[in-house]
Structures are given as structure tokens and as C-alpha cells.
Predict the 3D structure of the following.
Amino acid sequence: MSDDYRNMWRDLGLDLKAHDMLLEILGKAYQDIYLAQKDRPEQMGYFDFVMSEVHGLRVKELMDEKAAGRKIIGSYCVFVPEEIALAGNATLVGLCSGADFAMEEVEKLLPRNTCALIKSTFGFKLGKVCPYLEAADMIVGENTCDGKKKAYESLNDIVPNLYVMDIPQMKTEPGRSLLKAEYYRFKEAVENLSGVKIDAAGLKKSIEMVNNKRKAIHRLYSLRKADPAPISGLDALLANQVFFYDNPVRFTESVNKVCDELESRIEKKSGAFPEGAPRILMSGCPMAVPNWKLPWIVETTGAVIVGEESCVGERGSRNLTDDSGGTAEELMDAVVDRYFNIDCAIFTPNPDRLNHIIQMYKEYRADGVIHFGLQFCQPYLMEAIPVEKALESKNIPVLRIETDYSMEDVGQLKTRVEAFVEMLKS
Ligand code: BJ8
């Protein structure tokens, strides 16, 4: 890494030694998991470059944006509407939370039995290793699960610019009204941060930009329905992860280039995996960078992941925001409508998610579903049981996995996944 980057990280207050260690681990994992794959689309080279520069070039771009007067907003959840941030001259970046860091320090602030995603949020802050977190002018937390809700109270003590958004728990009219009120409060907070009034023209433009990004990733999803699958699940997951922090216009272009290549691969019947490889739908908790453990295990058994029912996947990017409204109020309503459809397991009851899993299983011509729940994640672990029952009642093979970010259970997981994939083959 260049001296410029080191100076930038130092200025952001990172612990350079710990940060070097993180980059080394990340680089090694990327090499072993991503670059070791065979038959990758050439256009994935862009994503390799993005990952090689994950704390370098993109952070430098954000710092340049800040110098030009733009604001940076960090978020942990797909309920934080990017359209509103962009319309207020702010860039929204997803904060990863996909690896364990500074666990000893974390467990002084959080109970041991907290999900890995929440612990990771704290670990990156306490370990001073996330340049995105340090570059952000505002960090948005959200009252989704109980773990996050209570953890933000403690995070508030170490993150001075934390803003907490309330999120409904029921898909009712009062629930929608709450989301609407919260999105208006967020709009005002963004306006206060940036000094830019969010109007209809700004919203229209930002809705178009975010919709384009979604359309590109939807195009990628639909190409994965082919057999042989033209792209691995690992590579598709990477695109889903980069979705949250790359420049939206460049991301859209890059994903469309991958899709052009995938179309020609499909024509030639050339795939990332052989035709007839067992096809898996992943469902459950979001997989934030660099949580690649389970997809890596699945795909090294010879099965291919063809879809993700996850917030880092279809749950997060499904549905466009209607941009036909003429006034800021109408466009804000469209934003609320779009996000109110997200079927996160924090909602009760949550029948839409069940239906979506079954629908995705059929559309992607999957052979089985692997449900991924992070240890101590009540909403998804609880919901895994009705999901399993519903799938089994339709004779859909399902494997329920509960794990965390450590590598300790890799052997055991491998054995279970291999047995499941063997069963799908027979
Ligand atoms: S909309 S899934 S991104 S809340 S894994 S922290 S649920 S205990 S991440 Fe999520 Fe928004 Fe919902 Fe999506 Fe809690 Fe579970 Fe941990 Fe989780």
C-alpha cells in the first residue's frame, strides 16, 4: 500500500499495526477463497481490484468527496434508504461487520452470547481498523432486532455521531406510518448534516441512480437461473457485498459488464460449475464482507449457490422505488412503500419471507435450501424452524446451519454440507 494511504489511515485515527494485520488476513482469505476458484468470468477482475483496494482507493475517493463538501453516512442495515442520503448530497456506505476483531475488548461491552455481526461492529470500532467508520460524518443504527437495539445504546458511547432510526416490527398501517415518520426524520437529519434541502428533483435523480444499481444486480440474479450456472455463488455474493460501498454508477456499469459476459457464457453453455451440479439457495442472515465461510464450504463440495435470500442478496435489493411521483411527498411515499416490503425476520408475523424462499427455490431451479443463522441471532434462528417446516411440507430439501465467524467449526460444517449435497445428488 502506498504511503498516501498510510497517511490517510493515520489521519483517520486507525491503529496502523492492527490494520496491517487485518489487511493481511483479508488478503490471504481472498486469495484462498476467491482467486483459487476456477472458470471465473473475466469481468470479475473489477471486483478483485475493488477488494485489493478495499481500504485504499474507495476510502480515498470518499475523502475526496468530503473535501469537496459531500457528507459520508455509514449504515448497518438495508432499511436505511440510500435514495434519501444521495438526494441530500451524501454518500451511503454499508459498514461490513463480517469478521471478528478485538473480541476481548468487545466482550467488555457486550455479552458473550451476542451475534457475531453486532460484535464485529464493535470490534471494528474498538480495534480502530475500519476507515469507513472513521470517515463517516454520520453512522446510522436502527432498532431492528433486540441485540442491535440495545447494542446501539452502548455504541453511542464510542461513536459520537451515531443516529438511531426506529423501525416498525409489524406490517400494519401504524407500522407503515412509523417508517414514514422515521424516513422524514432521517431526511431532516441528512439536510441538517449537509445543508442541502432534499427536493423532488434530487429524489428523482437519486431514485433513478439506486434503481439502476438494483436493475443491474437483478440482471445478474436472473442469469444465475441458467444451468450450467455462469457464475459461482461466491462471485455473486461478492457483487452483492460490493453493492453496499462502491460508487453506485461505477458499480452499475461493472455489474452490467459482468452480465454481458455471462450472457455469452450461457450461449456457449460454459459455466463456473459443470452442468447438473447441485444447485443451492442460501437463505437467512446477511453475509457481510468478509464472511465467505459457508459459501466457500458449499462450493468446495461441488455444489453451486444460485441465489441468496438475504439482505446481502435479494431481500435487500428486491423491488425498485417508483419514480413516477411529481412532488417530494409523492417520491418520499414511494421510498417508504419500497422499503416497507423488506421481509426481515424482525417482523411478526412474517409470511412474505416464507413465500419468497419458496418462490426463489422454484425460480432459480434450486435442488435444496441451506438456511444460515448466526449463532445468538434470535429472529433468524427462530424463523428457521417454520422455514424448515414449510419447505419440508413441500418436499424441498433443507439444511439448517447455525454458525459464527470463527473457523473452528469448518470441519464439522463441511461434513454436514457434504452429506446434504450427496443427498441432493441421489
Ligand atoms: S433488514 S436482516 S440488515 S436487521 S444477525 S444483528 S438480526 S441478531 S442483521 Fe439485518 Fe436489517 Fe434485518 Fe437485513 Fe440482529 Fe440477527 Fe445479529 Fe442481524
Notes: The two ends are 49 Å apart (CA to CA). The mean pLDDT is 97. The beta strands are 71-75, 90-94, 138-143, 162-166, 279-284, 304-309, 368-374, 398-403. The CA atoms of residues 88 and 190 lie 6 Å apart.
